[in-house]
Design a protein that fits this description.
Radius of gyration: 13 Å
Number of helices: 3
Number of domains: 1
Helix content: 10-25%
Distance between the termini: 16 Å
Structural class: alpha+beta
Number of strands: 5
CATH class: Alpha Beta
Order of helices and strands: HHHEEEEE
Shape: globular
Amino acid sequence: MAAYWALVDAGDYGGLRAACTPGSAAALTAASSDIERARVVRVARVRREPGGAQVPADVRIVPAGETTPWGDPGTHTLFVKLTGSTSGGWLVASWGTSP
């Protein structure tokens, strides 16, 4: 989880594509232009679901620009949906501010 948010922080869109489920453009779009800095503060326990898992993560976000959906810099609880990869790890399918 921390590695994914480090990619967001670095603006490494190639790395983000590799870390996301193919076709999961929503995760890439949300991470692309509205976040200047991102740092994982806390990751909760992974909850397995049919076809994947979900994990709540507290992420400190410094928004890019003056008007963004993130408001002032601060910690946001984000719910990250994961799918299994063929290599045995997890890929990010999507994430948002509610489960």
